């Protein structure tokens, strides 16, 4: 009898139940207590369940205490075990028909061996590393899954190894990735993170190449452990989503809107992952599942994320994406520590240089307001506000709201607010004992040795 447990199915194996060891049955005899994994056709004989499922007994077991081999059985496929006590077996995933799964395994294993042999035979001096990643490596493969492989070239000749082909209707791509690109992955400037973080080395030219790769893997992990770094990367992903949303606003048809919205959702999902100092190690296949397990999520994120796939109009997609962006921005800002706590020794001399450069913008606002030039006052204020926001965040100055005071019919409000903020910035600089490079006249400037 099958029972529902949380979101997984599980079965209770009563004492005396029979388990048949198939070729995919895995019992770690040398590491007791262990877990019993049962995979493939006929693995659980007593209940006649369909093939193609992966089961796992959801509690520690001891072969000697919990399972009893049937007399005269050998350690071969088909060996039978009887349960001594009640065990709970959980369905982990559906693998598809066993025959198709085995066909996929044979195909992919053959392609892997072909690639390794080809590198060793023809490109052993041209390739630093041959690596495998993706569903076949991380356990999410299905009967139509390929095997994802790439290589790091050592010489230009390695480029000839690059190829694409189709076997049994499944497409394969063996492609190069330079050391510089792998470094970009480690620094989250390239988003194929599993290509570095979740790989199996199939071929290595030298110990030095392996060490270089492992150092980049360590760099990736160090970056993941750096909260400030990952929040910066989360902000970058958020900005990309905002940019795409700008295109979504002007999307002409539903198909285009769906494409843009899908990328907005994916970019925001990565921003959320980075905020949680992680990434999607198993790619898109388990992105939703992985999101549900994250500690910090934007408000209603899962509902909105799924809503993108269910929306039936461009207007609905725009509304969902706008809310997702706003909620993700809210989460990232909440996770960011105050700058004063992050930055123990901010460079106030740099702030002084910034102010001396931006005085010209303050003056533009002053003149525009005095002459009633509404457009120039507005645009100059906009430029200064962007700079003020950056400086306020970097130096922990709190809100420096200039444009909130703008009124087209009363520019004096903008000028007064600009003057107040200017005074505040000067006070912050001087409070650090820094003297601004100010001169009352040109003669005074020249007398200071600037001629």
Chain-averaged pLDDT:
83
Molecular shape: elongated
Helix content: 40-55%
- Low-confidence segments: 1-9, 22-35, 39-52
CATH class of the largest domain: Alpha Beta
Secondary-structure-based class equals alpha+beta
Q: What Rg, in angstroms, do the CA atoms define?
A: 31 Å
Beta-strand residue fraction? 15-25%
Distance between the termini: 94 Å
Q: What is the gist of this entry?
A:
The chain folds into four domains: about 1-95, no CATH class; about 100-225, Beta Polymerase, domain 2 (2-Layer Sandwich), CATH 3.30.460; about 230-335, Up-down Bundle (Four Helix Bundle (Hemerythrin (Met), subunit A)); about 350-430. About 50% of the residues lie in helices and about 15% in strands. It is built from 16 helices and 14 strands.
Explain what this protein looks like in three dimensions.
- This protein has 451 residues and is an alpha+beta fold.
- It contains 16 helices and 14 strands.
- It folds into four domains: 2-95, no CATH class; 100-224, Beta Polymerase, domain 2 (2-Layer Sandwich); 228-335, Four Helix Bundle (Hemerythrin (Met), subunit A) (Up-down Bundle); 348-431.
- 50% of the residues lie in helices and 16% in strands.
- A six-stranded antiparallel beta sheet has the order 1-2-9-6-5-4, with no helix packed on it. Strands 12-13-11-10-14 form a five-stranded mixed beta sheet, sandwiched between helices. Strands 3-8-7 form a three-stranded antiparallel beta sheet.
- Strand 12 (163-167) and strand 13 (170-176) form a beta hairpin.
- Residues 1-9, 22-35 and 39-52 have low confidence and may be disordered.
């Amino acid at each position: 009898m099958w029972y529902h447990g949380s979101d997984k199915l599980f079965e209770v194996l009563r004492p005396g139940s029979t388990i048949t060891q198939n070729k995919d049955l895995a019992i770690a005899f040398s590491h007791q207590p262990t877990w019993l994994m049962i995979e493939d056709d006929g693995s659980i004989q007593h209940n006649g369940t369909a093939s193609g499922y992966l089961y796992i007994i959801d509690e520690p077991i001891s072969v000697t205490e919990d399972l009893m081999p049937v007399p005269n059985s050998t350690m071969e496929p088909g060996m039978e075990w009887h349960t001594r006590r009640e065990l709970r077996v959980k369905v982990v995933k559906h693998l598809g028909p066993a025959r198709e799964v085995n066909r996929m395994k044979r195909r992919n294993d053959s392609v892997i061996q072909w690639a390794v042999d080809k590198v060793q035979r023809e490109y052993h001096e041209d390739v630093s590393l041959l690596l495998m990643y993706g569903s076949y490596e991380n356990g999410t493969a299905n009967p139509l899954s390929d095997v994802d492989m790439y290589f790091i070239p050592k010489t230009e000749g390695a480029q000839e190894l690059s190829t694409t082909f189709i076997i049994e209707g499944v497409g394969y791509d063996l492609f190069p990735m330079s050391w510089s690109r792998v470094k970009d992955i480690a620094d989250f400037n390239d988003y194929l993170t599993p290509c570095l973080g979740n790989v199996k080395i199939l071929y290595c030219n030298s110990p030095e190449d392996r060490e270089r790769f492992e150092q980049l893997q360590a760099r990736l992990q160090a970056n993941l452990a750096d909260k400030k770094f990952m929040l910066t990367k989360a902000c970058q992903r958020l900005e990309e989503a905002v940019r795409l949303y700008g295109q979504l606003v002007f999307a002409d048809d539903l198909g285009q809107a769906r494409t843009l919205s899908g990328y907005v959702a994916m970019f925001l999902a990565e921003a959320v992952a980075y905020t949680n100092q992680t990434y999607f190690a198993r790619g898109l296949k388990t992105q939703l599942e992985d999101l549900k397990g994250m500690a910090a999520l934007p408000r209603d994120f899962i509902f909105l994320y799924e809503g993108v796939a269910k929306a039936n109009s461009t207007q609905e997609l725009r509304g969902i994406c706008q809310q997702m962006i706003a909620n993700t921005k809210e989460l990232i800002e909440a996770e960011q520590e105050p700058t004063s706590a992050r930055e123990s020794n901010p460079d106030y001399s740099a702030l002084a240089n910034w102010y001396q450069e931006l005085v010209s913008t303050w003056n533009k606002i002053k003149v525009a307001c005095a002459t009633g030039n509404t457009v120039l006052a507005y645009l100059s204020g906009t430029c200064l506000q962007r700079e003020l926001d950056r400086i306020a965040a970097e130096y922990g100055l709190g809100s420096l709201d200039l444009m909130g005071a703008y009124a087209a019919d009363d520019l004096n409000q903008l000028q007064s607010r600009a003057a107040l903020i200017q005074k505040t910035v000067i006070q912050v600089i001087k409070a650090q004992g820094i003297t601004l490079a100010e001169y009352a006249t040109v003669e005074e400037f020249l007398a200071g040795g600037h001629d």
